[in-house]
Amino acid sequence: MAESVRLVDLVQSRLDGFLDDRSSIVGTIGPDVTALLDDSRRFLSGGKRFRAQFCHWGWRAVAGIREAPVTQRELDAVIGAASALELFHAAALVHDDVIDSSDTRRGEPSAHRRFAARHAENRWAGDGAAFGTSAAILLGDLLLGWSDELLDDALFELGDAQRARAARQLFNTMRTDVTAGQYLDVLEESAWVGRDEAEQLEAARRVVVFKSAKYSIEAPLLIGAALGGGSDAQLETLSAFGLPLGIAFQLRDDLLGVFGDAAVTGKPSGDDLREGKRTLLVALTRSRVSGSVRRVFDELLGDPNLDTEQVLMLQGAMRDSGAVDEVEEVIDREVRRANAALDEASLAPEAIAALRQLTARVTDRDA
Fold first, then answer.
1. Contact assessment for residue 287 and residue 197, using Cβ atoms and an 8 Å cutoff
2. Which of 16, 56, 135, 209 sits most deeply, having the most CB atoms within 10 A of its CB?
3. CATH number for region 2-363
4. What stretch of H or E contains 105?
5. Could you count the other beta carbons within 10 Å of the beta carbon of residue 7?
6. Is 121 exposed, middle or buried (0-12, 13-18, 19+ CB in 10 A)?
7. DSSP assignments along 120-184, one per residue
8. pLDDT confidence tier of residue 1, bands split at 50, 70 and 90
């Protein structure tokens, strides 16, 4: 995967250059605003870069077998679009941490906690937590706007209006999907009490698809393919691969949110239990346990002060109910669906090989 490693370096370089350019604008506003730029750099350094990689290989999948040769200008545009996806992802993480009241991100304080700490260190007036939340929302908004700017720069570099329009429409759809999916996630943490078990399962599945699966894998693939001038058939193949893989990716994330090692994931073990995430894992558990267990489960889930013993109790209920095994079976099934979509696909062989390797990486992981 030497090409993927090089891609990650190119994306980091593009992001660094973009932030350097914006620093001149931020600098004219005043030194107090530089904290936004500093935290932007922190959020955009490192990470797995899965979205950038899927964008790149979506492009390579179609560009690698077309007649027209690849130009440096086109490659630069793809790197720019991949970088814009990483900016968008950073914005989503900042906002997600605010919504979930998460203390950490990648083993460090989340953005709103970092801003709250600055408030305390400087002994500013008012509520430090409220300041942290407000500042983090603005940071997320800034990153979201910058992702649009970087994408526009990339589409201009491409020099092909038809491909640029197709990629822009896919990006816009992705943005709507993930925002609506995030709302569904927030909604379900409250609205579940009025739904029966079947409705809770269906709601959890919709959250998986729209909050994560589409924007994490399917949309980046399609945006990359659009930049390469992919046909409708090629985009359909990549969608048939990307959506089930995205579902498997998020379900693995849900398991890690409950059972993951804090030293590896960078978030406390059982964090999703304290946040009260109404995942498919939770919905399956509730549908399988006895009424008495369900009452205790519902009472504990979402309590931010859960202690270790209570977390272990909830984890045990999930395992004993068979819900964990069922989620693992769903992951395996979706991975098989994804891989089957690439069989005999009219895509570049080297891209198919890379996508199969990425499939294993995003679904068989501990962080």
1. yes
2. 56
3. 1.10.600.10
4. strand 104-105
5. 21
6. exposed
7. HHHT-SS-HHHHHHHHHHHHHHHHHHHHHHHHHHHHHHH--HHHHHHHHHHHHHHHHHHHHHHHH
8. low
d(CA 326, CA 286): 13
DSSP assignment of 107-134: TEE-HHHHHHHHHHHHT-SS-HHHHHHH
Mean pLDDT to the nearest integer, 235-246: 98
4: pLDDT strictly greater than 80: no
Is the Cβ–Cβ distance between 243 and 222 less than 8 Å? no
pTM: 0.95
- Those residues whose C-beta lies under 8 Å from the C-beta of residue 24, and which sit 6 or more positions away, are none
Q: Which of 154, 40, 17 is nearest to 91 (CA)?
A: 40
For the chain, which residues make up each domain, given as ranges? 2-363
Given a contact cutoff of 8 angstroms between Cβ atoms, the answer to whether 302 and 275 are in contact is yes
CB atoms within 10 A of CB 116: 21
Q: Tokens 């691969």 sit at which residue?
A: 241
User: What's the rounded Cα separation, in Å, for the pair 303 and 285?
Assistant: 17
For the chain, give the mean pLDDT. 94
Binned at pLDDT 50, 70 and 90, residue 308 comes out as: very high
Q: Which two tokens stand for residue 82?
A: 């991949």
Using pLDDT thresholds of 50, 70 and 90, give the confidence band for residue 280: very high
Of the pLDDT bands very low, low, confident and very high (cuts 50, 70, 90), residue 173 is very high
Query: Do the beta carbons of residue 243 and residue 209 sit within 8 Å?
Result: yes
**CA of 133: how far to CAs of 128, 130, 324, in Å?**
9, 5, 34
**Residue 271 near residue 185, CB atoms below 8 Å:** no
Check if the beta carbon of residue 234 is closer than 8 Å to that of residue 61.
yes
Buried b (16+ CB within 10 A) or exposed e, 64-95: beeeeeeeeebbbbbbbbbbbbbbbbbbbbbb
Size of the chain in residues? 367
Tokens of 185: 């996630």
Contact 184, 165 (CB under 8 A): no
**What confidence tens digit (pLDDT) does each residue in 92-120 have?**
999 999 999 888 887 789 999 999 999 99
